[in-house]
């Protein structure tokens, strides 16, 4: 146990030196007469003593508060303290509560011992304070260990729950419902946003029950596809978020093809309470809730809109530009269900294993909206 003694030179002869000698019998003491030798840097040695000490005995007096070095040492000791670690052990020498308060209101609230009670009693009080503090530190360490064991236990329990749900009807149903909740929430939130602004309009489609599409202004389209879903397993399930930009009509009347401008994959997992969470890769330990995933999708959507808006040409301000970039037309039943490349369909969970079973076309909106093209142009491929 190492003790740093902070004091003023004026208090050395009659009190600090006898105190250091008495403490040195039971502790390793940093005291300038013991440590400093000819040629040493005072600042370097004091810093070494402060950073390596366990406790700091501070002899507070009028001389102490009248000097800069002792107060710098005190500042260093304050920086070592935490909510669970007491470092400073104050001693009042020739000063009372009113005097200490005048110099330092913070220190006046610390329980201190008066030097007038004599070195033996002061040393005894310092030993008792260190013993109590050491026991408190042991309790803190025990609590921290207990928390770590609980965290490990919770992690193991979560892995057990997840392992059971990955190969079960219950797990597959939970993932399916999480996907449908995500789609419904996105549609609701974007509809609310559109109703509160003037120029932003969003349309939605479910060309297949496991595919949800968001069409935004500026030819932006987000496609959410729950791939490899099944009725009794989530092992291969992947939620694919693919971002497309719809090309503008060419002067010849032909439609530029869709361009994929980004893609993100999310994988389902289960928390200890059996709720579905999502991860950006299968081996990741960081899981997010379906609400957080929805926030992520919305953030990516607005970031893409901001990017496209920044690159919007001046000509788009005109009628022609608005028509190309913002107008939409409704497809008839004879038209293709989606202009987006649709991945190979994975059969959704059967009605016997999942409840409720989503409708393949009417869950959200069975119409998809595409940019308007001249009448002579062919439909996008």
Task: Explain what you see.
By secondary structure, this protein is of the alpha/beta class. It is 42% helix and 19% strand. The chain has helices at residues 12-23, 32-35, 42-52, 62-65, 68-80, 97-103, 105-108, 119-166, 169-195, 290-310, 319-326, and strands spanning 2-6, 28-30, 55-60, 88-92, 113-114, 203-208, 211-216, 220-227, 238-245, 259-270, 276-279, 328-330, 369-371. Helix 1 (12-23) packs across helix 8 (119-166), helix 3 packs parallel to helix 5 (68-80) and helix 9 crosses helix 10. It is elongated and about 100 Å long.
Gist of the model:
The chain has 381 residues and is α/β, with parallel strands linked by helices.
On the 0-100 scale, what is the average pLDDT?
A: 80
Outline the biggest β-sheet: 6 strands, antiparallel
- Alpha-beta content class: alpha/beta
Number of helices: 11
Shape: elongated
Low-confidence stretches: 315-381
Q: Could you spell the SSE succession in H and E letters?
A: EHEHHEHHEHHEHHEEEEEEHHEE
Q: Please bin the fraction of helical residues.
A: 40-55%
Report the end-to-end length measured between terminal Cα atoms: 79 Å
Task: Give the topology, please.
Elements (H helix, E strand, L loop, with lengths): L1 E5 L5 H12 L4 E3 L1 H4 L6 H11 L2 E6 L1 H4 L2 H13 L7 E5 L4 H7 L1 H4 L4 E2 L4 H48 L2 H27 L7 E6 L2 E6 L3 E8 L10 E8 L13 E12 L5 E4 L10 H21 L8 H8 L1 E3 L38 E3 L10
Parallel strand pairs: 1-2, 1-3, 3-4, 4-5
Antiparallel strand pairs: 6-7, 7-8, 8-9, 9-10, 10-11, 12-13
Helix pairs in contact: 1-8, 3-5, 9-10
């Amino acid at each position: 146990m190492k003790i740093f003694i902070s004091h003023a030179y004026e208090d050395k002869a009659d009190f600090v030196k006898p105190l250091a000698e008495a403490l040195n019998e039971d502790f390793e003491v940093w005291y300038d007469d013991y440590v400093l030798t000819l040629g040493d840097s005072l600042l370097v040695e004091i810093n070494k003593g402060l950073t390596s000490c366990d406790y700091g005995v501070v002899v507070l007096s009028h001389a102490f508060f009248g000097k800069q070095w002792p107060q710098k040492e005190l500042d260093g000791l304050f920086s070592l303290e935490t909510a669970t670690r007491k470092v400073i052990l104050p001693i009042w020498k020739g000063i009372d509560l009113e005097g200490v308060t005048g110099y330092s209101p913070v220190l006046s609230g610390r329980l201190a011992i008066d030097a007038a009670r004599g070195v033996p009693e002061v040393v005894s009080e310092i030993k008792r304070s260190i013993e109590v503090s050491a026991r408190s530190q042991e309790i803190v360490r025990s609590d921290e260990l207990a928390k770590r064991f609980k965290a490990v236990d919770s992690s193991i329990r979560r892995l057990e729950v997840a392992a059971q749900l990955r190969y079960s009807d219950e797990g597959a149903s939970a993932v399916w419902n999480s996907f449908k909740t995500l789609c419904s929430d996105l549609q609701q939130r974007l509809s609310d946003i559109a109703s509160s602004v003037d120029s932003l309009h969003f349309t939605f489609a479910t060309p297949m029950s496991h595919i949800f599409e968001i069409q935004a202004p500026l030819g932006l389209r987000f496609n959410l596809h729950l791939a490899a879903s099944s009725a009794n397993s989530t092992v291969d399930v992947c939620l694919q978020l693919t971002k497309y930009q719809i090309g503008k009509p060419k002067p010849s009347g032909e439609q530029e093809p869709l361009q994929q401008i980004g893609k993100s994959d999310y994988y389902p997992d289960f928390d200890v309470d059996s709720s579905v969470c999502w991860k950006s890769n299968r081996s990741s330990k960081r899981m997010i809730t379906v609400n957080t995933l929805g926030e992520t999708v919305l953030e990516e959507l607005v970031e893409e809109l901001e990017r496209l808006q920044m690159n919007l040409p001046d000509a788009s301000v005109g009628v022609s530009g608005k028509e190309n970039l913002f107008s939409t037309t409704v497809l008839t039943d004879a038209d293709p269900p989606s202009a987006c490349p649709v991945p190979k369909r994975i059969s959704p969970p059967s009605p016997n294993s999942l409840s409720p079973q989503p409708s393949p076309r009417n869950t959200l909106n069975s119409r998809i909206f595409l940019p308007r093209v001249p009448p002579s142009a062919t439909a996008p491929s």
